[in-house]
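Aim 2 progress update. The chain analyzed this quarter is reproduced below.
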Amino acid sequence: MSTAAYTSAAPLQGSARMWGTIALSAATFMNVLDSSIANVSLPAIAGDLGVSPNQGTWVITSFGVANAIALPLTGWLSQRFGQVRLFTTSVLLFVITSWLCGLAPNMSVLITMRALQGFVAGPMMPLAQALLLSSYPPALAGMAMALWAMTTLVAPVMGPLLGGWITDQMHWGWIFFINIPVGFMAAFITWTIYHKRETPTRQLPIDSIGLVLLVVSVASLQIMLDKGKELDWFQSPLVLGLGVVSLVGFAFFIAWELTDEHPVVDLKLLKIRNFWTGTLALSISYSLFMGNLVLLPLWLQQFMGYTSTQAGMLMAPVGLLAIVLSPWVGKNVSKYDPRALASFAFLVFALVLLMRSHFNTQADFATIMIPTILQGVAVAFFFIPLTGIILGGIPPARIPSASGLSSFARMVGGSFGTSIAISVWQDRAAMHHAQLAELVNPLNGAATSALGAMGAAGMDAQQALGQINRMVDQQAFMLAANDVFYASAIIFMVLIPLVWLARPAKRAATGDVAAAQAAAAANAH
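Predicted structure tokens:
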């Protein structure tokens, strides 16, 4: 996305700059909030719409995949229609799709509306950043980005708390309806202030074939991951067909993008070592991050007896230390090797997940809370250094394409990671359930003693066995969650050598690029 023409406009002054900053930050806050607010509401949404909580994760993945697909189009759309017009339209469409999400009568409609919401939200983050930078003189650009980045860090704190409270006190649809007044306010103020500063537009060819191949291949793979467990994976003709379509689609997509004159995704960037190592590390680590972020509240609400509000209170602190530490990291990233900072983040993530892998059904609120608080340290040291690695040394003209491609990989990774984590959790739970159920037999003293105690309490044999089965279920899903946490910790450790495959970048350039671009990657939810 080229912003050269736009940034040549004089910076805003006084109240116009203040209100412009508020409007752009509010739109960003709304976007990021909507990604995190639904996490703790999934069991309630699924129950109300008559599907399993695991199927409810499609509410998260459909938004992420559609958002990722829209990101590469932002540059073409902004040059075709203008940054201000595109941003305002994107916000208004986000409001409309939010309203339709809240009114969804069944899961199919909700997933469709969430996908549309994610798609129209694609241009909002990068354009908010571009418009904000144009509002401030170069000397204050760092401060502008710091203010903007704070909104992306506060939203993940507010999202679980607000989502949990709304779900427990009101209808879950209000987690979407609250976007309506915020969105209308942001769109109105943005258009009022910026419409006379519209960027020049020009006719550009669009890689329609590449776009279709991208949508078909990514969507097929995501649906395969979401439906695989339910349909017994490759025993199902549908899952097998989706896998073939995705594989063939990606093969044609790569071949087409490498030869097209105006590719929707510049795959030639993958020839740059720092770019591919940083992007691969970012997408894998973000997939682990998102998978565990969705898994934890599901486990707490389904098997630990937590309400949506309580689960939200446990998830919210993930952003607290990130809010405190991110400004320091952004200010000092140029003084340190970003590979070392990213490695530190991965070590903290691994520590947090190892702590979670020792949870049991007796874990109290504080025990579960401590790793969540510590995770904020990893979040603060995560995005900014990795963005510096990815964009360090890339010519300025290619930075928009590089930033878009890395953001696309991150968002797709997050959606895939969510589906994979939930699927693995279910598979491991089934295995643990079978192993634990074998222990419930007449030769096991503990089992016969428990059944006897239940009989003495007035339960008949069927009721007692049902109670035992619920206890086995709780233990099985707890052990399965521990497995996912432990495996994720190991993968984070394995990613550290990958980061060090990148070459040391020029510190100053890396710091400048990271400070300017980190906020775009900071919607860590």
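The first helix runs from residue 4 to 7. The CA atoms of residues 207 and 262 lie 6 Å apart. These observations will guide the mutagenesis experiments scheduled for the next reporting period.
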